[in-house]
User: Fold CysZ protein from Fusobacterium ulcerans 12-1B.
Amino acid sequence: MKGIKLVLASFSDSFRIINEAKLKKYYFLPGIIGIFLFVVLIFLANLLSFGIMNSLESIFELEKYHALVSILIRILIWVVAVFLYYLVYKSLLLLLLSPILGYVSERVDSHLTGKKYDFTIKDNMRFLMRGAEVGFRSFIKQLVGTCVIMLLSFVFPINLSIPLLIFLLQGYFTGFSFMDYTLERYEFSPKESLEFLKKKRFYSLLCGSIFTLLFFIPFIGIFLAPLVTCVATTKVTLELIERDKFPEVID
Assistant:
């Protein structure tokens, strides 16, 4: 319960922090980049969708099945395509936004702790490369995990929970991407970040899941979710790092 309260309180408090740290302008830039990327990917998806769907229908030989079974398989193929599209879109968006969100996380840290950071261009390039590395690894793991989950869709009753399992998988890795902005600033190596994530997986899962819920709010979600989640997750991660320094505080 403490973990849930910490995450929910941080998301609730994020709007106050955004106002006090003068970060309102960062609602718009992620949103504009997100809309542009969405339009580009939709255009590419329309070019490829018919060919891919026809190929999949040919592979599964849907015409041989009963009409109802054929419809169900087509729906399954469509659901998989939607999830894969979201995975590619979200991963590319967070990769493009990593310099911006890394800076936002730094500003939030300074606002909450009073610490001052003076990163050089070399430091920023290092952060960008690490963000790309973490994003790419997360993308591959999510892709493999999604494929494994979809294979389980043929197993009853596991198939009834497929959407929930994919939602939780997405939330887990998305939350880690946001937590890593703070971890890299506190000089956690990629290996140390993964170890931290394993210990705090619940927080990563919850932060990433809230991001997904915010992101799917029509239109405003694309402006709201990146900034609010970055601010809230930074606050959560700082609290978790502080707790690790003082083990007597029960997590």
